[in-house]
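Project standup — Tuesday

K.O.: blocked on the structure for the chain from last sprint. Re-posting the sequence here as requested.
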Amino acid sequence: MPKKPLSERVKSQKQSKLKEERILAAVDAYKAEQAKPRPHKGVRAIAKEYGIEKCYKTIINRYNNMRSTTEAHEDQQNLTAAEEAVLVDFLMQSVDRGFPQSRHNITQYANLIRNNRLGKDCMRIGDTWVGRFLERHCDRLQMHWSKPLDTQRAQSMNPEAKKKWFELLEEFVVKAGIRPEDLYGMDETGCPPSDQGTKRVCGGRGTKTQHKQGGADCENVTAIITICADGTTLHLTIIFKGQNFMTKWADDNVAKAS
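H.V.: unblocked you, prediction finished:
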């Protein structure tokens, strides 16, 4: 499947980033030359060496601790560079946990960051900001159509994965001397009232599909099962959403669940 071509804005951003990296490297080289008793290279020679002949004045300005254009305009941006870096890390962590964020959610988190720095009365970020944010960080982030996690779980049940699991079990349970009666296994199963479908979410760059677990804002009937390693079990627990308990929920309770 052919990849989507990069937009002109992304191409320009990549070129600017490459140019900035060359300028920083040239500044370091100029500092090293200035630290010598008798510098052998001038700023023009260093600029030519790094392929940025027209930026020799920029090298001198940076050497004198002048800010770059991006740094000078940082106060005018909705989020600072440090805040955007924190948001990118959060999005990547959400992906690793199976909870990728939609564009709307990214906007909400960005507004929370702004509220924390500027107060609740600050101007809110619009949804169009997310597109520019994703383009700025296209080396790490991209949009996907979400895919149910059940498929991934089924494909993970292979001999190699199970072998690794038992190796971990031996190292951290058997060798540690944990007694069977002190070891419990608990799992929960969510039963949504209807198919939640797929949605457009943000994920890591380079992945073909993005798996998404059920969101916390989706209504679910949850069953919690707890089994001890010695063979005993705790009562099954069923959780319904509601302010009051309805007696019909306990009808046909053959498992005597709580």
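K.O.: great, moving the ticket to review. The CA atoms of residues 101 and 201 lie 5 Å apart. The chain has two domains: 8-74, 77-147+183-258.
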